[in-house]
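Researcher: Quick test of sequence recovery. C-alpha cells follow.
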C-alpha cells in the first residue's frame, strides 16, 4: 500500500483519528509520518514494565537467590532472568512456575 500523501513510498504507519465522531484513516510512509509529527518506530529501550520489575527486585525478593534465578518454565523455557528483562510471561504455565516470585512481587506492588 502506498503512502496517502506522497503516493510514492510504501505506507508503514496506519494512523486512525476520530474527530467529532468521524473516523479517518491515513496510510503514511516513514517520511510523511515524521512530517506530521507521528513517530514511525517505537523508541528503543526496555518497556516500562520491565524497568519497573527490575527496580522491584530488592534483597527480600524471591528472585534474589540463585535457585530462583535458575527457574525456567518447563513449557516455554522462559527463565526468571528473561521475565525480569522482558516484563511479561511467556505462556500460561509460567504463572505456576513463577508463582512464588509473582506472589511476592504483587504483594510489594499492592501492599
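Model:
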Amino acid at each position: 500500500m502506498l503512502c496517502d500523501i506522497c503516493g510514492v513510498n510504501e505506507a508503514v504507519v496506519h494512523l486512525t483519528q476520530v474527530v467529532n465522531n468521524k473516523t479517518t484513516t491515513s496510510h503514511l510512509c516513514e517520511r510523511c509520518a515524521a512530517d506530521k509529527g507521528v513517530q514511525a518506530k517505537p523508541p528503543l529501550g526496555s518497556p516500562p514494565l520491565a524497568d519497573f520489575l527490575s527496580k522491584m527486585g530488592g534483597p527480600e525478593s524471591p528472585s534474589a537467590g540463585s535457585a530462583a534465578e535458575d527457574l525456567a518454565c518447563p513449557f516455554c523455557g522462559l527463565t526468571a532472568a528473561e521475565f525480569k528483562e522482558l516484563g511479561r510471561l511467556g505462556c500460561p504455565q509460567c504463572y505456576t512456575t513463577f508463582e512464588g516470585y509473582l506472589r511476592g512481587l504483587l504483594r510489594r506492588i499492592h501492599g
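Residues 99-110 form the longest helix (12 residues).
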